[in-house]
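RECORD TYPE: inverse folding
INPUT: structure tokens
STRUCTURE:
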């Protein structure tokens, strides 16, 4: 018994000695670490506080780490240091809802940082949980690492055999050298006798990418995000973000210009957005600054040209006096003089078309199709130019070229070319060829066709004696739009041609019920009644058609 007491006393003394040694080690860095700690308060859209949590600086430029949950739905946040001084959170530099962590940029001239440990702590090594700022504790809580599980190949997730309350979330966990190894995480319950910590090195590694603009982790935080460090990624981030919040969008564009002052994208985005907001003077200033700052000046001229061109198309907008199609042409010419790109040729072609300079525009669209920008669309634009010039033969040749850009079986992109060529073939009275194109168009667009399409095809089918197909189409048109008297009258006419006089008479009466002053409907009804042997009623119908101005009915009323 005496031996056991002695052994216990020796063990107790050893443990006390270790604790004393650890305590002595921690006092060397505790006060400095305290200066890096923060209390962080987040606020929502209504200005009300969402939550209060902890955090700490990890560099001298104001980068800090904290937990995610209080930032969800937050529109702004402030960080309060040991002395009680308050600093605004400028942006979110990284976020992970899965691990409940965020990386922040805080507006401060110079911050006192904690050093993040390069190596992970191992099981059994001493760990120190820093108290939160408002705690009266003057030393950290000393414990050991119970588990150190690896995630993402290199980072540690720690289990510590010590109880903490919710006020300790995001407090730093330190090693013997005063380096931070992790952030305290919320315990499963207040009765837990252990807590967890996620690697501080992992949180430091978080960064925005282009796709962050679409990730829920980032979108759920309404505070501005830091742009990706790579220019292409940053540009894509802004594009994916969208322009629904123009103020925030312009803030990001300003960030882009600050980060990449020699890149044209920032100035073009700013100029185009300010123009969209009606700030034409601001747009001009943005482009002019860009012309002085970037090497690819042609992109600036192109941006200004297409913006002016688009604005001119909106006739309801009050524009600056020099925002004209002529100015748009000058700007695109300046871009082309620097870099003779096909896209600039295409832009000029559209400008010339709007100026009704159809022959010049047509040639430019054809020229574009000699480059890597060859497309069916350019042939269709050229065909439209020839349409305005009245050269139907040239129109059809260009539309043939547009359709030839696709191979059978056609893809949906071919639909506009097929429909436009069908319209030209109808005008040239090549009805059977037109029906072929309309059939292909129907196959591609079957889910979005309206009654007018089927009426138009029925008219072509009637002209080339495809009577059954014509009947099917006009029946479909009348069913899709039963309140249109024209379709009911046409249904009556086609049924009459099929000697289906009862059906024809019913359709004619339906047309008259919809429009009592439709002379053709009365004439068709008269023909049907005559075939049914109802001569008196037939003459009454013919007379009504005559009264409404139908000349053909005059030749029918007394005919037998």
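DESIGNED SEQUENCE:
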């Amino acid at each position: 018994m005496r031996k056991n007491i002695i052994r216990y006393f020796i063990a107790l003394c050893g443990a006390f000695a270790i604790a004393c040694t650890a305590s002595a080690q921690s006092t060397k860095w505790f006060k400095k670490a305290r200066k890096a700690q923060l209390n962080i308060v987040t606020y929502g859209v209504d200005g009300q506080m969402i939550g209060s949590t902890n955090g700490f600086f990890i560099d001298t430029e104001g980068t800090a780490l904290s937990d995610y949950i209080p930032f969800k739905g937050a529109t702004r946040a402030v960080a309060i240091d040991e002395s009680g001084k308050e600093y605004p959170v400028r942006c979110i530099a990284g976020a992970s809802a899965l691990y409940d962590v965020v990386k922040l940029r805080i507006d401060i001239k110079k911050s006192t940082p904690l050093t993040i440990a390069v190596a992970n702590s191992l099981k059994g090594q001493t760990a120190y949980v820093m108290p939160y700022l408002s705690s009266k504790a003057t030393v950290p809580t000393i414990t050991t690492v119970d588990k150190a599980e690896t995630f993402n190949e290199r980072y540690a997730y720690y289990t510590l055999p010590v109880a903490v309350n919710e006020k300790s979330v995001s407090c730093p966990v330190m090693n013997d050298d005063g380096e931070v190894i992790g952030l305290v995480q919320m315990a499963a319950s207040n009765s837990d006798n252990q807590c967890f910590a996620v690697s501080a090195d992992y949180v430091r590694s978080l960064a925005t990418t282009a796709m962050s603009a679409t990730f829920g982790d980032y979108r759920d935080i309404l505070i501005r995000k830091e742009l990706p460090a790579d220019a292409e990624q940053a540009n894509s981030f802004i594009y994916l973000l969208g322009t629904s919040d123009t103020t925030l969008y312009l803030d990001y564009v300003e960030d882009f210009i600050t980060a990449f002052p020699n890149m044209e994208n920032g100035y073009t985005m700013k100029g185009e957005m300010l123009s969209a907001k009606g700030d034409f003077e601001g747009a001009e200033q943005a482009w002019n600054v860009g012309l002085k700052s970037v090497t690819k000046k042609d992109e600036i001229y192109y941006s200004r040209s297409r913006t002016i061109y688009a604005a001119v198309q909106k006739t309801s907008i009050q524009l600056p006096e020099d925002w004209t199609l002529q100015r748009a042409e000058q700007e695109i010419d300046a871009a082309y003089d620097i870099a003779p790109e096909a896209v600039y040729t295409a832009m000029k072609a559209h400008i010339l078309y709007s100026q009704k300079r159809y022959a010049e525009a047509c040639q430019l669209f054809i020229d574009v199709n000699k480059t890597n920008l060859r497309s069916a669309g350019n042939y269709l634009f050229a065909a439209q130019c020839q349409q305005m010039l009245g050269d139907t033969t040239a129109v059809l040749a260009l539309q043939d070229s547009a359709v030839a850009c696709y191979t059978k079986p056609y893809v949906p992109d071919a639909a506009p070319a097929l429909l436009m060529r069908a319209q030209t073939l109808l005008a040239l009275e090549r009805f059977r060829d037109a029906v072929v194109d309309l059939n292909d168009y129907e196959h591609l667009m079957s889910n979005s066709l309206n009654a007018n399409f089927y009426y138009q095809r029925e008219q072509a089918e009637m002209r080339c004696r495809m009577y059954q197909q014509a009947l099917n189409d006009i029946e479909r048109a009348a069913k899709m739009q039963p309140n249109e008297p024209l379709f009911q009258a046409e249904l009556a006419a086609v049924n009459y041609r099929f000697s289906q006089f009862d059906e024809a008479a019913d359709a004619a009466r339906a047309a008259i019920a919809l429009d009592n002053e439709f002379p053709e409907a009365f004439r068709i009804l008269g023909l049907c009644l005559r075939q049914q042997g109802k001569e008196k009623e037939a003459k009454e119908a013919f007379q009504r058609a005559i009264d409404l101005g139908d000349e053909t009915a005059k030749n029918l009323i007394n005919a037998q």
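NOTES: The chain has 22 helices and 13 strands.
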